[in-house]
Amino acid sequence: MATIDSHSSESETHDEHGHDHDHPAWLAHHFDTPEQQFDSGKLGIWLFLTTEILFFSGMFCAYAMFRMLRPEVFEGCSQFLNTKLGAINTGVLLFSSLTMAWAVRCAQTEEYKKLVVMIASTLSCAMVFLGVKSIEYSHKWGMGLLPPGSYFYDEANPHPTAQQIVDQHGFSESTAYFLTHSLYYLCAPFALLLIGVFAWLVWAKVTDNKFQYACAKPLLVVCLSFFGGVGLGMVLESGGGEHTVAHVDGDHGAADAGHGHADHEHAEDAHAAETHAAAPALDVESDDVAMELLAESDLNTGAKAMLEAKQAQTAMASGQVVPPGVEADMGIATVEKDVQTKRQAGVFFGIYYCMTGVHAIHILAGIGVLVWLLIRAIRHDFNRQYFGPVDYVGLYWHLVDLIWIYLFPLLYLIR
């Protein structure tokens, strides 16, 4: 009897800790209630997001330091960034935040069809973002707008061929070919993914596997969204004319176009100068005598100030050195600086690729987690008490969007 009681008590203990039939499958064994599990996961994701903020803060600090040291470089080089593409990507990510928040609500209310649609919409927005960014990267790589050491942009030849890159800039043939055809390399992985998902969809349809067909169908739309972003980026990039650096000395093209008119104006100016030089001097001395008489009165401060200003002007015209403590406008407002150098412009584009590239990697990571959520949503894994994973991924996605909202004005709108 003692043995039986012992086995009985062990069986009851085992049931309590290992095979409790009242314990839901989605509730981890080390949690007592769904609320405890959700709060623990929420704390974990916030700690993770804190480390992400610290990680990006280092790059933002580097940006602030270099921009403080070379503001003219950042202002000049930012003109190569297409503001339209950046604005489109900003709108796409803001809309994806809406769909992600809506997905969390659908998981809470157990609206599974809407949940799948919202997650798929968020994925599609992420793919459109990457498609537009691929156009931006490939266009700049072909122009030579690269980090220091690889920067080779030439204003006289902004779109060199692969052979010109090899001959003039010393790159290898394979590197030059990659730079001039980088869009194909960026699109190749997504094209293979599209073919694989399409084959999966056909196989699921043929074998009548409803679950896999339900997974492959939205993923096919997601893959096509990348190439929609590529097409949108190509249209906007071809129409954008933001790839010239402004000069202080004005528009050379307009001056060249009106060369004959400019010569005529110069001739008129020269004639006017000769006429002015040959014209008899006005009665300046009589004016000076009258001004001196008026300035003798202490009450007439205006005449006294005019006389002093006229004397200073006469002294400067005669070549007299300006005495210390007297400010004089020498006629030079700004000095034109060449910022398109490897050492200066390369630093800007190095920071640009670093910050936007790391952000794109986070987009890719978010896509992977969202695909996992999509499959689980189709499987109806979430309910009113268990929607934590959707909420956690939503917080991560909002952080990724928030970082881009800071990157867009700091990189694209500083001019």
TrEMBL record:
It is found in: Membrane. GO terms for molecular function: cytochrome-c oxidase activity. Residues 42-415 form the Heme-copper oxidase subunit III family profile domain. One of its GO terms (biological process) is aerobic electron transport chain. GO terms for cellular component: membrane. Keywords: Membrane, Transmembrane, Transmembrane helix. It comes from the Bacteria. SUPFAM superfamilies: Cytochrome c oxidase subunit III-like. InterPro entries: Cyt_c/ubiquinol_Oxase_su3, Cyt_c_oxidase-like_su3, Cyt_c_oxidase_su3-like_sf, Cyt_c_oxidase_su3_a-hlx. Residues 1-21, 250-272 are annotated as: Disordered. The chain crosses the membrane at residues 43-66, 86-104, 116-135, 183-203, 347-375, 395-414. It is a multi-pass membrane protein. Residues 7-21 have a biased composition (Basic and acidic residues). PANTHER family: CYTOCHROME C OXIDASE SUBUNIT III, NITRIC OXIDE REDUCTASE SUBUNIT E. Belongs to the cytochrome c oxidase subunit 3 family. This is Cytochrome c oxidase subunit 3.
